[in-house]
Structure formats: C-alpha cells, structure tokens
Amino acid sequence: MGHSALLTVCAKDLRQELRTRESFTSAFFFSLLVQVVFSFAFDFQSIGLGFEDVGGGILWITLTFSSILSLQNSFLIEREKNCLAGLVLCPCDPSAVYLGKFLANSIFVLAVQALILPISTLLFGYDLLRVLPGLAMVVVVNAAGFSALGTLFAAISVRTRRSELLLPLLLLPAATPVVIWGVKATRLCLAGRDLGAYGYLVALSACFGAIFTVAGVLLFDYVMED
Amino acid sequence: MGFRMEALDRNLRRAEILLFGAVGILMIVSLYFVFKVVPSEVTMGVVQRIFYFHVPSAWVAFLGFFVVFLSSIVYLATRRLIWDTVAHAAAELGVLFCGIVLFTGPIWARPVWGTWWTWEARLTTTLVLEMVYVAYLVLRSQAENRDQAARLAAVVGIVGFLDVPIIYYSVQIWRGHHPIVFKSSGGQGLEPIMLKTFMLCMGTFTLFFLLLLALRVRLGILQDALAELKEHDSTAGA
Amino acid sequence: MSAAFLQVRDLDFRFGSRRILRGLSLTLHRGEALALFGANGAGKTTLLRLLATLLRPAAGDAELEGVSLFRRSERSRTRRRIGFLSHQSMLYERLSARQNLLFYARMYEVPDPARRCAELFRLVELEGREDDPVEEYSRGMQQRLALARALVHDPDLVLLDEPFSGLDPRAARRLGELLVDLAEKGKAVLFSSHDLEAGLSVARRVAILWGGRLAFEAGRDTLTLDSLARTYASVAGRIA
Amino acid sequence: MIPPREPDVKNLNYLFWAYTLIWVALAGYLLTLSIRLRAVTSQLRRLKSRLPGDER
Lengths: 226, 238, 240, 56
Fold this sequence. Notes:
The complex is a heterotetramer.
Chain A: H1 2-20, H2 22-41, H3 44-47, H4 51-79, H5 83-89, H6 94-124, H7 128-157, H8 163-174, H9 176-190, H10 195-224
Chain C: E1 6-15, E2 18-28, E3 33-37, H1 44-51, E4 59-64, E5 67-68, H2 75-80, E6 82-85, H3 97-107, H4 113-123, H5 139-150, E7 157-160, H6 169-184, E8 188-193, H7 196-202, E9 205-210, E10 213-219, H8 225-239
Helix pairs in contact in C: 3-4, 6-7
Chain D: H1 6-50
C-alpha cells in the first residue's frame, strides 16, 4: 500500500514540473549565474590556483542554493489551492507523501546538476570526464542528504507566513555537515584522488541522509497536521 | 487561568526565590575563587581564567538544547502547551548562553593565539548551533498561531538536537588536527584547586540556568493566561 | 431510522486561545442531508474541517459508526469513508482535470481509476474538458471538479463547505439535485450554507450553529422558508 | 605560588572585558525578564478586575 502513494506523489510532482518547468528553470539559471559570477571572481591564471582548490566551494554553493529553490517550490505548489489539506486527507501514511516529495526533489536537484556540471567544465576548464564517476556519486549522495532534511523543513516553512525567509534560515545551519563533507569530498575528487581518499566522506553524508530520512518519516505526520 | 496553572505558578515563584538566594551566594563565592584563590594557568597566564565562565556557559547552552529536545517530544505526545512553553524558554536560554560562549571565546583567543576567531571544533559547533536555534526562534515568531508554532517548533527542536553530535563530528573532521588546548587543560592538567573552582562555576551556572528557566516559563504561562483573558474579553464584549 | 451513522458528542475546539466550538453535539443518519446555517465565524467551517479529520478537537468526540474519527490507528480507514469539499478546490491548477482526478483516484486507491474518473466527469458534466488545465476552468466548473475530487473514492460521509456560494441559479439547482441523489443512495450528507432557500430545497434536516453549539435543529417538513428565516433572525438576535 | 606579574598585565583587560560582557548579558537578560514579568502581571490584574463576573 505504501509505495504506491509514494510513487503517485512523486509522479505528480514530476508531471507538474514537466508542464510548468518552474523550479527547473529558476534553479538552473540561478546556478548558471553563480558559476558565471565565480568565473569573474577567480581568474585562475593570475591567482595561481587550480580549479581543484576552489571547485568544491563553487559547485557546492550552486548545489545548495539551487536545491533550496526547488525545495521551496515543491511545497508552494501545494499551498496554492490548499492542496496540502488534500494530501492530508488521503488515507495513505503521511510518510509516503514525505518520501514522494523527497524523491521528486532529489530528482529535480540532480537534473539541474546534470546540466550545470558540463557547463562548469566550459567555464572553469577542468576535465570533468576524468573525475565524473566519483563526482557524480558525491553529488548524488550529498544532494539526497540535503533534500532529506530540506523536504521536512520545506513542509514546515511553507505553513508559516514568510516561507522564503525561513527555509534557508532553518536548513543551511542544520545541513552544515553535508556541506562540509560535500565540499571536502568534491575537492579530493577534483584533485584526482581515488575513491579510497574520500569514500568515508560520502559514507558520512549517506548516514546523514539516512538519519534525517527516518526523522522525516516519523515527524512528517506532525508537520502536515493542520 | 486554569487551577493547575496557578499551582504551577506558585511553585515556580517559590523555586525562584530559593534559586535566587543560592545563585547569589554561589556567584560571589565563584568570583572570589576565580579571581583570588585559584593560581593562573602557567602557559596562558591570567587570561585563562575566562575558562571558568566560558566552559560552564557552553555546558548550560547544551543543557538548554537538551531541555528543548525533551519537552518537544513530551509536547508532541501530550499536546499540553506547558511543555511548549518550557521548550521555548529553554531555547531562548540556549541561544543566550551560546551567545556568551561566542563572544568570550574570541576574547580569550585574541591574546593567546593572536586572532579573534579560531575555527576550533567546539567554538564552530557552538556557532552553527546558535544559528540553528536562532532559526528555531524565528520559526516561532513567523508561525500563524500558537498551536502551529508549538507543533512546528517541536519538530525543529527534535531534529535540531539530533543534529548536534553530527555537526560536532563534521566540524571535527573538517578541522582535522587535535583540538587546541582549550578544555583538555581544564580536564586532566588542572590542579585540584582549579578543578574545584571549575566545578563550583559549573554548579553556579546550572543553578543560574534553572533560575532563568523558571522565570521565563512563568512569563510564558502568564502571557498565555493574558492572551486567553484578552480573547475572553473581546468575545464577551462582541 | 437506522442507527446514527455520525455521532458527535459535545465537541470543543480552541483556535489559539479562542473557543470556537463549545460542547457541540450532532447526529447524522445514512440517507439524510443536513443543512447547517450560521453566520460567518460561527464555526461552520471549523466543524466541517474537524469532521474531515483535518483538525483535532480540544475535547469531546465524533464517531463514525462507533469508531472515533480522531483515533490515529483508525485514521486511514476513517479517511477512506469521508469526502470533503472545502472553500478551496484542492486542485493543481497547472495540471489537467483528468490528471488531477487520476492523482486523487490513485491516492485513494480506487480500483479502476480511469473508469471511475470517466464516471465522475459524466456526473459533474465536464465531459470534453477533461484535458484542459484547471486554471482555464471557470469558477463553477472548478467547483464541480472539486466536488468530483471529493467523491472520487465514493465516500459514505460527504461534507461540503458552502457548496452553493458563488453559483448561478441553474448550477445551484443542479448541485441540489446531485446532493439529494447522494442522500438517496444512502450517503450521509452535511453541508453548510448562507442560502436558506437552497439549503431547504435539499436538506431533510436543518440546524443553526451559534455560540459554538447547535442553537436550533428541526426536520425540514416542520418548517417553511419564512419560519426558518424568523428562527434564524431570533437565534442570531437572542444570543448576540 | 604567586602568579608572575609582567606577562599578565596586558592580558588583564581581556579578562576584564570577558567577565563584564558575561555579566552584562546575564544581568541584562534577568532584568528584561523581570520587567516583562511585572508588565504581564499588572496587565493581568487590570484585566481580571475588569471581568469580575465570569471569572473562569
């Protein structure tokens, strides 16, 4: 019974996104803007730094803030005609709604990253293909960890008056571990180190994601209650 | 105000008077010990004495967040607003004492390491926790009504506390090397007199925390009673 | 009359520190439509949202055939039996009508979603407009689709919040016929309204909500439009 | 064991500032709490006196 509601919610979000492409375009262009600004800021030749040293930070700021946009949007669309209440009234377990939203948000974030990474190779001239497998894993695991906590906090902040202000304020400090491990793993990966060097960081981010997915499943019911 | 609330209010007031007396005396004794009795730490000199208030503040802030965690769980289970009032009070105190740690830390670091801010694991964790629980207080102010604020804040109170060890661990990894001799000198390296003073200060701060908590909880109860009376007043009049 | 299908016993609800429902009691039988009248802020919407299990009462209880609406363990089964049409449509404006209805049909695990949706589109006369996005629908059409959404899982208890507001006479009459038909099919129907006439034309029983409680309740046949209007004015007058 | 004088003197002001700020924070908070408490209790008393009849 559980997984059907989960997939239904996720499919609905994907269908809505395909039709409106709101959160994808806003997140993508925001990320592009951040990358362009960074390429203005860091003229690599003159400051003698390779992209490896700074790339972790750049990719992570892009990922963090673009995911906040799509997390925000994933619950704003529910608030419009009080569809939140519609979801609460469904006989399914509220955690299915949480997991459905979590899955949809992770997919949106990764879709944006899949487009941004190649573009960042053009802007910053690093060899993406060499680091791709490792980097892809780092991005997937950390984006999922970030979305796990982000989906719960997005559901919380959408119910208050100023949700755009509240979500970053709640999410960024609490997600510090994922950001720290993500940046460190990305830097090691970009520096060409093999999995052995940053594998433990990816594992830690995976634990973070697991812990807060469980917390989300247990607490989502209290958040959705009116 | 409901009958049970009045009894609680009376007990809180009685507790406050006791605590006020105890904290008053202990504070004077602690100050005497810290400035007069205990010798300066040999390497850092007199400035190390900040330690005797800095670390207890951090402990009390942590205690505050733990109280938020527990009372949030009890609130979600029982839905009695008194637990939400306790959680709100404890969060406010947590943020206050974190603030104290965050500005006594740099004052201590400046003369000893020459920089105002050191990305030392404990100080960084305190900074991140301060931001988490400031966000908790902002959430409360943005909520549409008291019941929603209580429910949503309880969820953040629980999730926020689960995050504490993870944040500390992640910061530990980030800073990599062994933590600067902040606390460890307090632990093993302390002479007996220093240890006694440290324990004295810890006790004083814990009691001070309880005093402030009692006061703030009582304030919360009275505010709720006032809101109820105002509501009653407006509907009776309408 | 069969045993009470919905039994509400002195329900209390508090919004922040404001007591909106004060010991409200109500019974509703299968095959019966009850019209609930009352001024704005009297608590009509709150009562309906409580019965729809969107809110939790401060005190008192409501039972659906002996099972409490608010027991967490029964919640999934209870919600399968309740349909709720609220002020807001709970529809995704950017998705098409069909996508909306199919989504809710799957969420309620309706056996054959496509067939059920086709049936509902016929019932609310929206055939031919299934694939237009809901944002292109008129207010009346959105309301009919919202009604279809509330009935997608064929609920036994149908709660409607101000269904007649904003409808032209023809649409109001059609909605009235539909509600009467639901009641005849053995559903328990409870709807709130400002429109005494529309309510009377549909309901078998009538109630007036005031001061957080049912201040007046009577069978439809014991009333005429103006006797109801007079009672309504006196109820509102006496307590205010 | 008398603590050595010279190296400490310049650090003394840091110590002074640390403790002063701690005191300002704690006493300040205590003060605001008592002010807010007094304000709420007086408002409560005033409102209660205005509603003698249906005291709940």
